[in-house]
Design a protein that fits this description.
Blueprint: E1 4-11, H1 15-30, E2 35-43, H2 47-57, E3 61-63, E4 77-80, H3 87-96, E5 100-103, H4 111-121, E6 126-128, H5 136-146, E7 153-161, H6 178-181, H7 185-201, E8 204-212, E9 223-230, E10 235-241, E11 250-257, E12 260-265, E13 271-276, E14 286-290, H8 305-322, H9 330-349, E15 353-354
Parallel strand pairs: 1-2, 1-4, 2-3, 4-5, 5-6, 7-10
Antiparallel strand pairs: 7-11, 8-9, 8-15, 9-10, 11-12, 12-13, 13-14
C-alpha cells in the first residue's frame, strides 16, 4: 500500500489523551494502513506534564493553545479529547479549516451544538469515539441480530454502572460541573449505552426518565434511569449511575427476542452469552462464547480496553482510504444527542418525551 502521510493534532492530554495516543501509536502495527500516521502535536493545558507525555507517546511537538494548532497547514487530522463543553468550538474550527475531525463523546453539550457540528462535516469522513462498538462481542451481537438468531426483539436492557461518585475524598473535577460537562452520567456514560442501543436495536422513539443527584452542591445527574420505546416495537430500560457501590465500570446489555437472547458485560469483554431458544428444550442454556477476534492475535488470545480504540481508529482509516463514510460519525452522535436531550427533558417534566428525529 502507498503511504500517504496523515499528520495528527491531538487536543487533550488526560485519560483519553492516553487512550488515543496509544491508538495512533498502535493502529499501524495491527491494521494494514495506507497512511503513515504522524503524531505531530499534543495539545493540553498542563504544562508541567505535557512534555513528558509527548515524549512517552512519540508526539513531535506540544502546544497549550488549541487555536494555534487546529488551522495549521501541516495538520491533516484534529482529534478532540477535552472536556465536553469545548468539543463544539474546537471541532467547528477544525472542520472550518478543512481538517478531518475526530471527537470524543458526547459529541456536544446541546443538540444545537451537535447539529452544527454534524452539519459542518456532513459528506466528509468524521468519527466519534463510541469505542465500545468495536468490542468483538458487540460485533458478534450485531451479527446474530442480522442473521435472525434473536428473532423479533422484545426487551433491550442497557446498564452503565460506576461507583466513584460516592467517594468523598475524590477532588471535584470537570465531570461533576454542569458548565464543563453539560450533564452528569447522562452525557458521560449513558451516552455509551444509548449509542449501543441504537447500534444494536435501532432508533428510540420515546423515553421516560428519572434523574437523581445524590451529592449536595452538585449540579449534574449522579444517576439516570430511563424507560424507552424502540421504533421496532421492543421496549427497553437504560440505567447509568456513579453510585453503584461495587461496580467499577460495568457497561453491559441484554437483548431478549423471540428466538434467543444475548448478554454482555465489559467486565468480561471477551465473552458473549447467547441463548438459543430454537434448540431442543432440555438442551437450552446460555452458551458462554469466547469471542474470536483475529484482527489482533490468533483466536482466543484475549483483548482489552485499549483494543477498542485501536480498532476504531484502524477501521476509520481504512474507510477513509476506501472513500467510504465511517460509523459512528457525527450524524450518529447527533442521534445519540437527540435521545440524551429527550431523556433530560423527560427527567425535568417527569413525563414521556418523544425523541426528535434527526
Ligand atoms: N470513549 C470513552 O470511553 C471515554 C472515556 C473517558 C472520557 N471520554 C471523553 O473524553 C473527553 C476527555 O475526557 P478525559 O477523561 O480524557 O478527561 P481528562 O480530565 O482526563 O482530560 C481532559 C484533558 O483536556 C485538557 N484540556 C482542558 N481544557 C483544555 C483546553 N482549553 N485546551 C487544551 N486542552 C484542554 C486537560 O489538560 C486534560 O488533559 C470527554 O469528552 C469525555 O467525555 C470518553
Amino acid at each position: 500500500m502507498s503511504t500517504n502521510r496523515l499528520r495528527v493534532a491531538l487536543i487533550g492530554q488526560g485519560f483519553m489523551g492516553k487512550a488515543h495516543s496509544n491508538a495512533y501509536h498502535q493502529a499501524g502495527h495491527f491494521f494494514d494502513l495506507p497512511y503513515e500516521l504522524e503524531r505531530e502535536v499534543l495539545c493540553g493545558r498542563n504544562e508541567a506534564t505535557l512534555g513528558g507525555m509527548a515524549a512517552r507517546w512519540g508526539w513531535r511537538e506540544t502546544a497549550t493553545d488549541w487555536r494555534s494548532v487546529v488551522e495549521r497547514p501541516d495538520i491533516d487530522v484534529v482529534d478532540v479529547a477535552v472536556p465536553n463543553h469545548l468539543h463544539a468550538e474546537i471541532a467547528l474550527a477544525a472542520a472550518g479549516a478543512g481538517k478531518i475531525v475526530l471527537c470524543e463523546k458526547p459529541l456536544a453539550t446541546s443538540v444545537e451544538d451537535a447539529r452544527r457540528m454534524a452539519d459542518a462535516v456532513r459528506g466528509r469522513p468524521s468519527m466519534v469515539w463510541f469505542n465500545y462498538r468495536r468490542v468483538a462481542a458487540v460485533e458478534l451481537t450485531r451479527q446474530l441480530i442480522y442473521d435472525g438468531r434473536l428473532g423479533d426483539p422484545f426487551h433491550y436492557r442497557g446498564l452503565y454502572l460506576q461507583e466513584w461518585g460516592n467517594d468523598p475524598t475524590r477532588p471535584p473535577g470537570w465531570k461533576t460541573d454542569a458548565a464543563q460537562a453539560g450533564s452528569g452520567v447522562l452525557g458521560d456514560i449513558l451516552s455509551h449505552s444509548v449509542d449501543l442501543a441504537l447500534y444494536l436495536n435501532g432508533p428510540i422513539s420515546e423515553v421516560c426518565a428519572m434523574q437523581q443527584t445524590f451529592a449536595s452542591g452538585r449540579d449534574v445527574d449522579d444517576a439516570t434511569l430511563v424507560l424507552a420505546r424502540f421504533a421496532n416495537g421492543s421496549i427497553g430500560t437504560l440505567e447509568a449511575t456513579r453510585y453503584a457501590t461495587g461496580a467499577k465500570n460495568r457497561n453491559s446489555y441484554e437483548l431478549h427476542g423471540s428466538r434467543g437472547a444475548v448478554r454482555f458485560s465489559l467486565e468480561d469483554l471477551n465473552r458473549l452469552e447467547f441463548f438459543d431458544a430454537t434448540e431442543a428444550k432440555p438442551l437450552q442454556a446460555y452458551r458462554n462464547i469466547l469471542v474470536n477476534e483475529t484482527r489482533f492475535w490468533k483466536p482466543g488470545h484475549i483483548l482489552g480496553y485499549e483494543h477498542t480504540f485501536i480498532a476504531a481508529l484502524g477501521e476509520f482509516l481504512l474507510s477513509l482510504h476506501r472513500g467510504e463514510l465511517f460509523h459512528p460519525d457525527f450524524d450518529d452522535a447527533l442521534r445519540v444527542q437527540l435521545v440524551l436531550e429527550a431523556i433530560a427533558k423527560s427527567g425535568n417534566s417527569r413525563g414521556w418525551q418523544t425523541v426528535e428525529l434527526k
